[in-house]
Design goal:
The complex is a heteropentamer of chains A (about 375), B (about 260), C (about 160), D (about 210) and E (about 375). In chain C, about 30% of the residues lie in helices and about 30% in strands. Chain C has about 160 residues and is of the alpha/beta class. Chain C has one domain (about 5-155): Beta Polymerase, domain 2, CATH 3.30.460.80. Chain D is mainly alpha-helical. Chain D is about 45% helix and about 5% strand. Chain D has nine helices and three strands. In chain D, about 50% of the residues are buried.
């Protein structure tokens, strides 16, 4: 392996650990411990733990980022007294929610009530195993990673509906139904927008898609697809203007009305995990992933972990745009949302697919690549 | 319709529909990026001199505009030394939150009564400080009053005196006491000259003057009384009505002196 | 519209169903009527252009109770006050909802606070006080107490 | 992957809930070590309460731990989510405290609409007898640990309306109150001061 | 989904206060509504009967906590009529100053709450921030932010502090461009129009039938404003337009309120100029002693009866920020009013809620009820 990746680091760690342990034990056991399978197994475990830690840390940082940004949009400061500039605020929230009693309503269905949030959280977290973060920094180079990511991503409405239904609360139920309807309505344009990217990139592998953007980022030629994708992502992430399922004004807290304590924390975390994944997908598909345009001085792209740095920077900026939208726009109504989804977004996404196909057919894509400042 | 005054100018450009609010939000973001209009409360306070009388509303930072605190009605300050125990504050309190209690350390034979305020009931209307004839009960700008025990909200006179000594800015606007024609009048035949009014008058403006004992006509019994009658000095009187309430024969009443 | 004009307009059609039309500050006047003729009076006044019923209220004068209606006319831009007396023992009057639908809540409020029943009211239930509240607080016989006094009383009873 | 013979059985111990022990005993009795047999045993009706119990035990244990307790205390006092509701006048000042000028979110105070997600009930206004039982319901819907702030005079003792026939003279007649804030209504600063006092109280609290 | 009743309130983000909107829905469509009031009924009319005329002021501030000074003005107009007192002209101008500032503050509060109902987050903060500037002004001359206790029978408590008019003009100068900013955030956004246009329709005739007044009536095109139709205080000497829109819907109410704020600013400039030019007394000269500021009742009853104060009835109507408010004060010669009756505009506006809610969707309830501008304090009293 040329450069250190997350997996190679965890493999080395596992090797070192098991080697140290093995030296203590007598021979038959030592041979078993230093077996390649065991080292690989432990490496996978360490890898998963590291990935979990990294994703959780990023999610919490993302919440802080949103709170601070939203504060500035609103002419105030946001969390600032817990930790430096409020950085520890979300940790405090998390620990507190962990300590809170988990109340299960008497009429609630226990199975759905507890498994819903857990599965929602887990399916959101699995995605991190699929997404590449920088060159080599992914868990497995799956040839269909984009498809897999979107497939896992679309599990969510099911679990939201399960938890909403089993809460046995009218607000939760309405929120859950809205959520399911909304996510299904926006799944189709989202996938079609992705198809446009896939047509141009010629692959379902996210790493390949990123490398295809080394010369020119896709947001220019595929602008229509980008708009559809961002709108669909907003709906999938349930953020304003499409945050109807938890519309605070009419449904108290939407489908998580009955949830408190750790289960509520699961919902919050999973929501922001999905926001993070949404931003990452936008960066991967349209903004060139960890690659930078050629006019950027090489010093800025060659320092250690430069790929990750640029990647995360882009992700956080994309998320800042989402926050900006949240600060400036009101929420739409369910029927309007669905109408827009089915009547506007699907034709638009078909248009995007058509445009992409035309671009590839006419071979005018390289034209963008010849522009003096590709990508930006 | 010609009547319609509140109309909007519809815009034809659909791109602006989402762009305009987002641009407004972005402008606000740029304005508040370095100095939002938040006051970092426990560390900065609005009554600080740097926020007081601030007039720079046009600079884009709207905090602290017109912060004139002198007038603010917060916790009371009581100057025990000048309090004359006239009861007017307790009378004028619409929420009945003022009790006149004996001040600690006062002479047990002639206990001095000063107001004790229950801040769990007070509605900070300022009627008491308006009514105070001596200006010893005023309102200050202190507003932080969180306690974990309900009884801590009751401020005895000594505690109000501490507030007075802490030299907080006090409410400077004093009501001009209107000239009024009301006065304490006496119904002489009822008076028995018992001195109760003069004894309890907080301003000592009642003096008992001798009245000539009339000659008893034959067959008529003179009333059994002290031959003195109260005379009220109107310029010193604060119209607290203590004399009327202590009068055993209800011979004092409100009236207009010709 | 002046008070005498009001009387001249109303008197021919209503006759002695209105007892008096008297001056009332800042309004066109106060029309006192007999409660038996309530609906006729309402209809006649409504026909005069008083389409907007501002409020309905009641006053407890210990021996009897008074119901007053305050109306507004957009044409003359004036208020008019209608009022009728009902005996305390038999306090009821015809509801104004057929003429002015907005009387609905005002009458509910008057019913629960001043204890004046409105006949043929579509929906006479508690509005401000809890369901089943047995008292009529705005009667003069209903006295208020400091909570401490009530506690002391409760302890002694 | 080969497994050491005794590995899966070591985990079974006395800490297991009753419902699991039967299956565990089966395993111990020399049955063939079928993988995932314990997952078969995890029937839903047993799993949920058992997991809840285990979680509660874990939390309780950590609550006792000298190392963890300060962390939870710190977290609890720095992240107080008040219930988002408005009773009367004080609700306007309550809202103003979340406005741009005072920004209560600086302290991690974020109002939540659902009582399940709240730790703090700020009673910001007059409590009438009509709303009293709803207030108690809301209080009971909040999960432990929870606190109550009586904001303003009406919540403290009925305020100017305490003589009225419909007003509860003080919310402490209904729910336990931790901090009283005097004022009619208290300024937003005074409300923040009350919240800071509550944080101090939580810090000093001995469990 | 079959029909079901849902309770929106008393603790619900939509209600902005303590009331309960019971809604019968089928799917997301509203079939019937039944507002349940009284959760904040504090018996203000009853307590007033136990208080002196001036002491009722402390209750008035708390009756409608977003428009305290308007209610003080309303009560004082009626009480002065009942007591046969006439305040000096400067006091009347000061009262108009209070009422118009209060109208802006109340509408800003409405704006902050309303935009939150449709999901706009940041304008809530803007509205509250700009409202705080007006509250600062109030604090500088009345001494409190929300519960002012400023007006007295016969005038007002005190005159303006020096430099007040300059500060007030600065605030007004700051506010005018802000209104434009608000419009950019709401009217400038297509989503706002999608949410609010044609919602909560109630025609002018229906409004009159159901007693609906204020911005709701004016948004239906009926030009009715008591400040213009039945001028009280000094409104006949001021130049302003009555804001009217023609949509009879949520957007129309938004437009009317925004225009009213601009008109209030216009009135305030005139009032401030007048106040600068005409110093004078702010309290009537000939006041009964017990109404002058430091009054000393002896006992709590019987004092006035000895003085044979003339009886009277007071009746006043003002255009409160929410609509037409009435006060009816009966003076039977005692120290306390014999009966005080208030008419709250929101009371009637809410009573008609069935007529502008049925047929719309659950998601439309927050914008429609937000556009009504519910202040529960004055409904329940």
């Amino acid at each position: 392996m040329a450069s250190a990746t997350l997996y190679s680091v965890s493999y080395d760690l596992s090797h070192l650990l098991l080697g140290g342990i093995a030296s203590v034990f007598p021979d038959p056991l030592r041979a078993w411990i230093s077996n390649g399978n065991v080292i690989t197994g432990l490496a996978v475990l360490i890898f998963a733990a590291l990935l979990l830690a990294a994703s959780m840390l990023n999610t919490i940082l993302l919440i802080w980022w949103e709170r601070k940004l939203l504060g500035r949009f609103m002419d105030r400061r946001g969390a600032m007294h817990v930790g430096y500039a409020g950085l520890l605020q979300n940790f405090a929230d998390g620990f507190k929610l962990f300590r809170k009693t988990t109340v299960q309503p008497r009429e609630a269905d226990a199975l759905g009530f507890f498994t819903g949030p857990t599965a929602y959280m887990v399916t959101s977290m699995i995605l991190f195993g699929v997404l590449p973060i920088s060159s080599g920094w992914n868990s497995g180079a799956l040839p269909l990673s984009l498809l897999l990511a979107l497939a896992i991503f679309s599990f969510a409405p099911l679990f939201i509906f399960v938890s909403a239904w089993s809460s046995n609360n009218k607000y939760s139920l309405m929120g859950g139904m809205r959520s399911a309807a909304q996510m299904i309505a926006y799944e189709v344009p989202l996938l079609l927008a992705v198809v446009a990217v896939v047509i141009v990139a010629g692959s379902f592998d996210l790493t390949t898609i990123v490398y295809e953007q080394q010369n020119y980022w896709f947001w220019g030629p595929l602008f229509v697809a980008l708009v559809v994708f961002v709108a669909g992502m907003l709906a999938e992430m349930e953020r304003i203007p499409f945050d109807l399922p938890e519309a605070e004004a009419e449904l108290v807290e939407g489908w998580n009305t009955e949830y408190g304590g750790m289960l509520f924390a699961f919902f919050m975390l999973a929501d922001y995990l999905r926001s993070l994944i949404g931003s990452i997908l936008v960066v991967l598909l349209f903004l060139g992933g960890w690659t930078m345009p050629s006019w950027v001085p090489s010093a800025a792209t060659s320092f250690p972990l430069a790929g990750i740095f640029w990647f995360m920077l882009k992700t956080y900026l994309v998320f800042a745009v989402f926050v900006w939208i949240r600060a400036a726009l009101p929420r739409v109504r369910t029927d309007q949302l669905l109408r827009v989804g089915w009547n506007r977004m699907i034709p638009l996404s078909l248009l995007a697919v058509f445009l992409a196909a035309a671009l590839v057919t006419v071979k005018c894509v390289p034209v963008f690549g010849c522009l003096p400042s590709p990508g930006i | 319709m010609s009547d319609v005054t509140a109309t909007e100018k519809p815009d034809e450009n659909p791109i602006l529909w989402v762009a305009r609010p987002m641009a407004t939000a972005a402008r606000q973001f740029a304005k508040s990026l370095f100095r939002p209009s938040t006051i970092v409360y426990p560390y900065e306070r609005l009554e600080d001199p740097k926020f007081r009388d601030r007039l720079d509303v046009a600079s884009g930072k709207p905090f602290g505009v017109g912060q004139v605190w002198d007038n603010y009605r917060g916790v009371h300050a009581l100057n025990i030394a000048t309090c004359i125990s006239c009861n007017l504050c307790a009378f004028s309190c619409p929420d009945v939150c003022i009790d006149m209690v004996t001040t600690a350390g006062s002479d047990p034979k002639h206990p001095k009564k000063c107001p004790q305020i229950d801040y769990g009931k007070c509605s900070y209307c300022g009627f008491c400080s308006d009514a105070c004839p001596e200006g010893c009960l005023t309102m200050t700008t202190r507003y932080e009053l969180s306690v974990s025990k309900r009884s801590d909200m009751i401020y005895p006179p000594e505690r109000l005196f501490e507030v007075f000594r802490s030299k907080l800015p006090m409410n400077p606007i004093r009501l001009a006491r209107p000239e009024n024609e009301d006065a304490i009048l006496l119904d002489p035949p009822l008076c028995i000259g018992c001195n109760a009014c003069a004894r309890d008058c907080p301003t000592q403006c009642i003096t008992m003057l001798d009245v000539p004992k009339p000659e008893a006509k034959p067959g008529e019994k003179l009333p059994k009384r002290i031959w003195k009658e109260p005379v009220v000095n109107d310029s010193d009187c604060v119209r607290c009505g203590t004399c009327i309430s202590v009068c055993p024969k209800e011979c004092l009443f409100w009236g207009t002196r010709k | 519209m002046q008070t005498d004009e009001l009387e001249r307009t109303l008197r021919p059609s209503l006759g002695d169903r209105i007892t008096s039309v008297e001056a009332f500050p800042d309004t066109a006047g106060r029309v006192r009527f007999r409660r038996e003729a309530a609906l006729d009076v309402f209809r006649s006044v409504h026909a005069l252009g008083f389409h907007h019923l501002s409020t309905v209220g009641g006053i407890d004068w210990v021996d009897h109770r008074e119901v007053f209606y305050i109306l507004w006319s957009d044409d003359t831009r004036q208020y008019v006050v209608l009022s009728t007396d009902v005996p305390a023992s038999d306090a009821h009057v015809e509801s104004a909802t057929p003429v002015w639908p907005s009387a609905n809540w005002h009458e509910r409020e008057t019913w629960e606070l001043v204890d004046i029943t409105f006949d043929h009211h579509p929906d006479l239930r508690h509005l401000l006080t809890p369901d089943g509240y047995a008292f009529h607080p705005l009667l003069r016989s209903f006295k208020l107490h400091e909570p401490e006094e009530l506690e002391v009383k409760a302890r002694h009873v | 992957m080969t497994t050491p013979a005794s590995a899966p059985r070591l985990a079974r111990s006395a800490t297991q809930p009753e419902s699991f022990r039967a299956d565990g005993d089966l395993l111990m009795a020399g049955q063939p070590a079928v993988p995932f047999v314990e997952i078969e045993a995890l029937r839903v009706k047993e799993f949920i309460p058992a997991a809840k119990e285990a979680l509660t035990d874990l939390i309780a244990e950590q609550g006792q731990s000298k190392l963890i307790r300060p962390v939870f205390n710190w977290a609890g006092r720095n992240s107080l989510f008040p219930l988002h509701w408005g009773l009367a006048c004080c609700a306007i000042e309550f809202a103003a405290a979340f406005g741009a000028r005072w920004d209560a979110e600086r302290f991690g105070v974020v109002p939540r609409s659902s009582p399940r997600q709240c730790d703090l009930m700020i009673v910001n206004g007059t409590v009438t007898w009509k709303v009293a039982h709803k207030l108690i319901t809301l209080y009971e819907q909040m999960p432990e640990p929870k606190w109550v702030i009586a904001m303003g005079n009406c919540a403290t003792g009925g305020g100017p309306f305490r003589t009225a026939y419909s007003v509860v003279p003080g919310v402490d007649k209904l729910v336990p109150v931790d901090v009283y804030i005097a004022g009619c209504p208290p300024r937003p600063e005074a409300m923040l001061d009350g919240i800071l006092r509550l944080e101090t109280l939580i810090r000093e609290r001995k469990e | 989904m079959s029909e079901m009743w849902i309770n929106m309130g008393p603790q619900h983000p939509m209600t902005h206060g303590l009331w309960n909107l019971r809604v019968r829905i089928e799917g997301e469509v509203i079939l019937d509504v039944d507002p349940e009031m009284g959760y904040l009924h504090r018996g203000i009319e009853k307590i007033s009967e136990d208080r002196h005329y001036n002491e009722v002021i402390t209750l008035m501030d708390r009756t409608c906590y977003v428009a305290g000074l308007a209610w003080e003005h309303l009560y004082m107009l009626a009480a002065e009529e009942a007591l046969h007192i006439r305040p000096p002209e400067r006091a009347q101008y000061l009262r108009v100053l209070c009422e118009e500032f209060q109208r802006i503050a109340s509408h800003l509060m409405w704006y902050a709450a309303f935009v939150q109902d449709i999901g706009l987050m940041s304008p809530f903060l803007y509205g509250m921030r700009d409202r705080d500037l007006i509250l600062d002004l109030f604090q500088s001359y009345t001494g409190a932010r929300m519960t002012y206790e400023y007006m007295r029978a016969g005038g007002v408590r005190n005159d303006l502090p020096p430099g007040f008019t300059d500060r007030a003009r600065k605030v007004l100068d700051w506010l005018l461009p802000r209104f434009h900013e608000y419009d950019q955030l709401c009217l400038g956004s297509d989503i706002f129009h999608k949410r609010c246009d044609g919602l909560g329709k109630l025609s002018a005739e229906e409004c009159i039938r159901h007693g609906v007044t204020g911005p709701m009536l004016r948004s239906a095109g009926r030009k009715r404003d008591l400040r213009r139709d039945r001028p009280y205080a000094v409104y006949d000497q001021l130049d302003f337009e009555v804001a009217v829109a023609d949509g009879a819907d949520v957007t129309g109410r938004y437009l009317v309120r925004m225009e009213e704020m601009r008109q209030s600013v216009r009135i305030l400039y005139q009032v401030l100029d007048w106040l600068d030019r005409h110093p004078g007394p702010v309290m009537a000269d000939q006041l009964p002693r017990w109404l002058g500021a430091p009054y000393a009742p002896v006992g709590r009853e019987g004092y006035l009866l000895k003085r044979n104060y003339p009886k009277g009835v007071g009746f006043s109507a003002i255009e409160e920020p929410h609509g037409e408010a009435l006060a009816y004060v009966v003076n039977e010669g005692g120290e306390h009013p014999y009966r005080v009756k208030f008419r709250s505009p929101v009371f009637a506006n809410l009573a008609a809620s069935r007529h502008y809610l049925v047929g719309y969707r659950v998601a439309d309830i927050p914008p429609i009820m937000g556009s009504v501008d519910v202040c529960v304090g004055e409904v329940d009293r």
